[in-house]
Specification:
Helix 1 (2-8) runs parallel beside helix 5 and helix 9 (258-268) packs across helix 10 (271-280). The chain is an alpha+beta fold. The chain is 30% helix and 23% strand. The longest helix is centred in the C-terminal third of the chain and has 14 residues, at 355-368. The strands form 7 sheets. Strands 17-16-13-14-15-12-18 form a 7-stranded antiparallel sheet. A 3-stranded antiparallel sheet has the order 2-5-4. The chain has a 3-stranded antiparallel sheet with strand order 7-8-9, with no helix packed on it. The protein has helices at 2-8, 24-28, 55-60, 63-72, 92-104, 155-162, 181-187, 220-226, 258-268, 271-280, 288-299, 355-368, and strands at 14-16, 35-38, 46-47, 77-79, 84-87, 108-110, 115-120, 124-128, 132-135, 138-140, 167-173, 177-178, 194-201, 204-212, 216-218, 235-238, 301-303, 307-308, 316-321, 339-341, 349-350. The chain starts with a helix and ends with a helix. It binds flavin-adenine dinucleotide (FAD). Flavin-adenine dinucleotide (FAD) is lined by residues 16-19, 24-25, 28-30, 34-35, 113, 115, 141-143, 146-147, 151, 153, 155, 315-316, 343-345, 354-357, 360. Residues 16-19, 24-25, 28-30, 34-35, 113, 115, 141-143, 146-147, 151, 153, 155, 315-316, 343-345, 354-357, 360 line the site of flavin-adenine dinucleotide.
């Protein structure tokens, strides 16, 4: 996006990519359909040490701007849920669109580049195994640490450090969490079971689906809250949001029996999970206070995850280049004029739902318009 904007303004641009093709993450994104933006994109959908930093770029390149580009290329798309826009056909459409726009803007794309050294005198010099590139400005767009097997590297952070630019320690975001051994033995044989929950941590909460996995918990609610979680914090899960499993017993006509409680719980949770919950949280008596306690536990399942699945499985890397180091308008380093950082390498991390791409497009456009 940065290369396109700069190329359109007549700049000579080369994109140096170490993989054998551009945009591999676009291809695997959104289950192969690329959730390329979100209609309800707001600054509140992003984590950053400075929550105001992203506002300017997001306001100057909006979801409507990206949608206009998608429509110009006649790419069919749909809203899946909660403002999330996906390609009807394939993420290849988005990558092809960006490659076409690069061609139209006269951008040179160089693949399989192994960068050996970056230095700065009058200009920036990027030395690769067999070439040397020189330019008055350099834009670092090499993403975060998630999914190393498709080419993620720490290169962007290392480059920042080399130029004396502060990094906020990166951590895996939008990532499944691991249950501790005891909870794993209690629940993980239910792998594949999902339920709508509210997951909360550190003053944040998300109401979406939770999925039990072979090692812990995943699903949108867990991925979202994982970006805010840090060991050894507590994660609290409301397994029955807006529901009252024991409410039926307020009517004295209803006998207080386990089978009635089970059938009520099965209306809220998948049967296997409901049965397991009852096994593990059996009532000591049928008093009002025992029922209230059961209800309370159902709405606040407290877990101390053993960790997360880490960068191998994380959809995004939180943390990164400290936003205090950058101009919010252009993404240019304050200390090193001519050096820019955009996208995921910056300490701006989106929620699940197309926000990370919107940040990549918006920060790329902000820099591209300033080069
Ligand atoms: C499985 C998965 C699914 C996702 N789905 C979505 C989704 O549907 N919607 C959404 O909004 N976000 C999604 N994301 C997040 C989104 O893909 C990223 O936030 C976004 O791609 C970041 O863009 P970027 O340009 O900053 O970095 P990247 O897309 O990671 O691009 C960085 C590029 O730099 C290259 N590079 C790295 N190191 C070097 C080096 N040393 N030399 C040269 N080149 C280098 C990489 O090969 C890569 O091509 C998903 C992420 C994953 C892992």
């Amino acid at each position: 996006m940065c290369a396109i904007e700069a190329g359109k303004r007549g700049r000579r641009v080369a994109v140096l990519e170490h993989a054998d093709r551009l945009g591999k993450k676009i291809l695997i994104s959104g289950g192969g359909r690329c959730n390329f933006t979100n209609l309800h994109c707001q600054p509140e959908n992003f984590l950053s040490a400075n929550p105001h930093f992203a506002k300017s770029a997001l306001a100057r390149y909006t979801p409507a701007d990206f949608i206009a580009l998608v429509e110009k290329h006649r790419i069919p798309y749909h809203e899946k849920t909660l403002g999330q826009l996906f390609c009807d056909r394939s993420a290849r459409d988005i990558l092809g669109m960006l490659e076409d726009e690069c061609r139209l803007a006269g951008v040179e794309i160089v693949l399989n580049v192994k960068i050996r050294e970056v230095s700065r005198a009058a200009e920036f010099t990027v030395r690769t195994a067999n070439e040397e590139f020189q330019a008055p400005v350099l834009v670092v767009a090499c993403g975060g640490l998630s999914i190393p097997k498709i080419g993620a590297t720490a290169f962007g952070y290392e480059l920042a450090r080399k130029f004396g630019i502060r990094i906020r320690e990166p951590w895996p975001g939008l990532v499944p969490v691991l249950l501790d051994p005891q909870d794993r033995s209690r629940y993980c044989d239910l792998a594949g079971v999902s339920a709508e929950v509210v997951a909360s941590c550190d003053g944040q909460q998300f109401r979406e689906k939770m999925l039990i996995t072979h090692r812990g918990l995943s699903g949108p609610a867990i991925l979202q809250i994982s970006s805010y979680w840090e060991k050894p914090q507590l994660l609290t899960i409301d397994l029955a949001p807006g529901n009252d499993a024991t409410g039926i017993f307020r009517d004295p006509k209803n006998a207080r029996t386990e089978s009635l409680l089970r059938s009520e719980l099965r209306k809220i949770l998948p049967s296997r999970f409901a049965d397991r919950w009852l096994e593990l949280h059996s009532l000591e008596s049928w008093t009002n206070s025992a029922l209230a306690n059961f209800e309370h536990q159902l709405h606040s399942w407290n877990i101390f995850p053993a960790g997360t699945e880490g960068f191998d499985k994380a959809e995004v890397t939180a943390g990164g280049v400290d936003t205090d180091e950058l101009s919010a308008k252009t993404m240019e380093s304050r200390k090193v004029p001519g050096l820019f950082f955009i996208g995921e390498v910056v300490d701006v991390t989106g929620h699940l739902g197309g926000f990370n791409f919107q940040w990549a497009w918006a920060s790329g456009a902000a820099a591209g318009r300033a080069l």
